[in-house]
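Feature request disguised as a bug: please show the residue count (388) next to Acyl-CoA dehydrogenase family protein in the output. Example input:
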Amino acid sequence: MVAPLDLLDLDTLLGDEERDIRAVVRRVADDKVRPHVAGWYEAGSVPVRELAREFGKLGLLGMHLTGYGCAGASAVSYGLACMELEAADSGIRSLVSVQGSLAMYAIWKYGSEEQKQRWLPGMAAGELIGCFGLTEPDHGSDPANMSTWARRDGDDWVLDGGKMWITNAPVADVAVIWARGEEGVFGFAVPTDTPGFAAREIKNKMSLRASSTGEITLDGVRLPESARLPEARGLKAPLSCLTEARFGIIWGSMGAARDCLRVALDYATTREQFGRPIGGFQLTQAKLADMSLELQKGFLLALHLGRLRDSAGALRPEQVSVGKLNNVREAIAIARTCRTILGGNGISGEYPVMRHANNLESVLTYEGTSEIHQLVIGQKLTGLNAFA
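Example output, currently without the count:
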């Protein structure tokens, strides 16, 4: 039986260091996540701080950033790490992605030197947890009209409003909060013990259950000027953070798809019906062939974007949208098809397939819905804005 990504010998496209980093992350996922993740998902809770410290020891938190205890790894190496983490569970990759590509990146890119020194070394080590507050109860895809307001009061800022569906919020030490003011959109590094800041755990999720998700309330949160991210000017700043994080999703979604296909291949070659393995039937082989094809193409797309980013230093937003739109859409299709191969067992928590499928429903939506990415690509193709 050939492993899902061995069909085209895609490993030959990776360097020795990239393969070594992938092996290390796969090992920690196998040791620290896989034995427990089904239970975490069932319980709807995850030991964020314990995992963050383990990931911090390996340099996985903010690994693509430089300085302040960060590893300074390549984009492809970071992508491979995301792939291995999400092969275990999307919620675990989300923990690392929100910590490094949203909260840490915002401070690293737009913060003052004082803010960087205060927060980034502890976040890189996993001793401090960060979250990223942009989405609101009534403003998801339209952050330009966010309701959270920042007003001047003497030398201070006062924040009022709320944020919703914020990964890591219930356990965070610092929240990067985006708010509108009279002069535009501002970002703030908010210590979560500041009076007026509250984070409530969101329960009863049917997806990303092995992830800590919260609703943030900001009630007269008073902050000094030193809490404002001085280089963040306008909505472009938080949107650039989302572009940063979406890159990890392009890779991570392929990890979830690969894990589903791995399980389906094993099941198809061992499960017998009508006196033979179900993998010997034409319809099952057609499903496996089509899924393998899309997995190879998704990996090649992720790798191409990673190489572009490593050579050019950044990707254009529409390039990231192509990656997220295609790879998450194909990953969820693979998960659903693998579920059909497993039959009734496909809905059992004994197998990871339904857990991956449920998680990917969230990945499909967060950090830009499929519709938003279609419009980003459409605008680039036509030169016409269809958002309004």
